[in-house]
C-alpha cells in the first residue's frame, strides 16, 4: 500500500491524471488485491495454507529483564513489523465482570483491559485494508464466550470477524477462503479461543482445538528436538492446522520463565534450535510446514526470514 501510494504521488507530481490509471495501459487501481499481508503471493493461497510467525503472550510487553513479560515491543509495533498472529491470555477482574490481559493472574501482571487490546487491533485493521490478522485467546478463567463477544462488539472489532461458511460446523482444512477472498469480503480478523467456544451463539469465535493442534509449550530444550502433538489430548493431526510453541523457558528452583538470553538463536531462521530447524522436523513428521510458530521477543533473531522460508516466498 505504501509503495502504491508513493507511485500515485509520483505520477501526480509528473502530471499524470492518477484518477484514470487505465490510461497508463494498466487496469484501474485495485490495489487492495495486489498485496495480501504484504505479499501478492499470499492472495491466492487459502488461509490454511499460509505459515505465520505469531507473538506468544502478545500483550505482555516490557523490559527484557522482567520475567513476567514475553515481548518487548507493543502490539501496534508487532503489527507494524509484520506480525499477523497474536496469541494472548485473559483473566477477569472486578469479580469476573471485566476481561483483562493478565499473565497467569492479575496480581502477577495486569497489562490492561481486553477492551483496550481489542481497540488497538481495531484501529490497526482500519488502517490496513490489505491485511488479515488472527487472534488466539487463552481464556484463562474459562468465562462465557459472550463476554468476549461483548467487547468485540463495543470496540467495533467484530465488524471484521470472519465467520466460516459452514458455521456453526467446522470448516474443513481445505475449504478455507483465500486471503484475497477474505480481504475482498473485509472479513480480515480470524478469532480462536482455547476454551468455551460456542459457535451456535458466537459464530466468529472459533474453537482452537477443532481447527489446530499444538506442540508442547514451556520447553526447556534449546534444540526444540521434537514436534509432538501435545493438545488436544488424544487428537489427531489429520484435518487440523498446527501451532508450534517455539519459545524457550529456563527453570530456576522449578519456576519457569522466558529464556530471553537465548532469543537470538531460538528465533533465528536457520541453525541449531532455530525456527527453521524445528519446522524441518515438523515437516518430516506431518508432511507440511507449521501454520503458526509462536515466539517470545519476536524482534530478536530473524523471524520474518523464517516465515518467508516456511511459505516458500
Ligand atoms: C501449502 O500448499 C503447498 C502446495 O500444495 C504445500 O506444499 C504446503 O505444504 C502447504 N503449506 C501448508 C502450511 O499447508
Ligand atoms: C492500550 O494499548 C496500547 C497499545 O498496546 C498501549 O500503548 C496503552 O498503554 C494501553 N492503554 C491502557 C490504558 O492500557
Summarize this structure briefly:
The protein has 313 residues and is an alpha/beta fold.
Provide structural commentary.
It comes from Recurvomyces mirabilis. InterPro entries: PI-PLC_domain (IPR051057), PLC-like_Pdiesterase_TIM-brl (IPR017946). Residues 1-19 form the signal peptide. GO terms for molecular function: phosphoric diester hydrolase activity. This is PLC-like phosphodiesterase. By secondary structure, the protein is α/β, with parallel strands linked by helices. Helices cover 25% and strands 20% of the residues. It is built from 9 helices and 12 strands. Strands 1, 2, 3, 4, 5, 6, 7, 8, 9 and 12 form a 10-stranded mixed beta sheet that branches. A two-stranded antiparallel ribbon has the order 10-11. Helix 3 (114-126) crosses helix 4 (145-155). It is globular and about 40 Å long. The relative contact order is 0.14. Residues 1-33 have low confidence and may be disordered.
List keywords for this structure.
313 residues; alpha/beta; 10-stranded mixed β-sheet; disordered N terminus; binds 2-acetamido-2-deoxy-beta-D-glucopyranose
Bound molecules: 2-acetamido-2-deoxy-beta-D-glucopyranose
CA(first)-CA(last) distance? 19 Å
**Strand residue percentage:** 15-25%
Q: Which outline best applies?
A: globular
Number of strands: 12
Helical residue percent?
A: 25-40%
Rg from alpha-carbon coordinates: 20 Å
Helix and strand element order: HEHEEEHEHHEEHEEEEHHEH
Structural class: alpha/beta
Mean of pLDDT: 91
Individual helix count: 9
The major beta sheet can be summarized as:
10 strands, mixed
**Uncertain stretches of 5 or more adjacent residues:** 1-33
Amino acid at each position: 500500500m505504501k509503495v502504491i501510494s508513493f507511485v500515485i504521488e509520483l505520477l501526480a507530481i509528473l502530471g499524470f491524471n492518477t484518477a484514470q490509471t487505465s490510461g497508463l495501459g494498466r487496469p484501474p487501481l485495485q490495489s487492495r488485491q495486489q498485496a495480501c499481508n504484504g505479499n501478492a503471493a499470499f492472495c491466492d493461497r487459502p488461509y490454511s495454507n499460509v505459515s505465520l510467525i505469531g507473538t506468544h503472550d502478545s500483550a505482555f510487553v516490557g523490559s527484557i529483564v522482567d520475567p513476567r513479560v514475553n515481548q518487548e515491543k507493543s502490539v501496534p509495533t508487532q503489527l507494524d513489523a509484520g506480525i499477523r498472529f497474536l496469541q494472548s491470555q485473559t483473566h477477569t477482574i472486578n469479580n469476573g465482570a471485566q476481561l483483562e490481559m493478565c499473565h497467569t493472574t492479575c496480581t502477577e501482571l495486569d497489562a490492561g483491559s481486553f477492551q483496550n487490546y481489542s481497540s488497538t487491533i481495531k484501529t490497526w485493521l482500519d488502517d490496513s485494508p490489505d491485511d488479515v490478522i488472527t487472534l488466539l485467546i487463552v481464556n484463562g478463567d474459562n468465562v462465557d464466550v459472550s463476554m468476549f463477544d461483548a467487547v468485540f462488539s463495543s470496540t467495533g472489532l467484530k465488524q471484521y470477524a470472519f465467520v466460516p461458511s459452514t458455521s456453526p460446523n467446522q470448516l474443513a482444512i481445505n475449504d478455507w477462503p483465500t486471503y484475497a477472498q477474505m480481504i475482498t469480503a473485509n472479513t480480515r480478523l480470524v478469532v480462536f479461543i482455547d476454551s468455551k467456544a460456542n459457535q451456535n451463539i458466537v459464530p466468529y469465535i472459533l474453537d482452537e482445538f477443532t481447527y489446530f493442534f499444538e506442540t508442547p509449550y514451556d520447553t526447556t530444550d534449546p534444540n526444540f528436538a521434537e514436534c509432538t502433538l501435545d493438545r488436544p489430548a488424544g487428537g489427531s493431526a489429520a484435518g487440523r492446522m498446527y501451532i508450534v510453541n517455539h519459545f524457550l523457558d529456563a527453570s530456576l528452583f522449578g519456576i519457569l520463565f522466558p529464556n530471553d538470553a537465548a532469543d537470538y538463536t531460538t528465533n533465528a531462521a536457520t541453525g541449531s534450535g532455530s525456527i527453521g530447524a524445528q519446522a524441518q522436523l515438523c515437516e518430516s513428521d506431518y508432511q507440511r510446514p507449521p501454520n503458526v510458530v509462536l515466539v517470545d521477543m519476536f524482534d530478536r533473531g530473524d523471524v520474518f526470514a523464517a516465515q518467508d522460508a516456511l511459505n516458500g516466498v
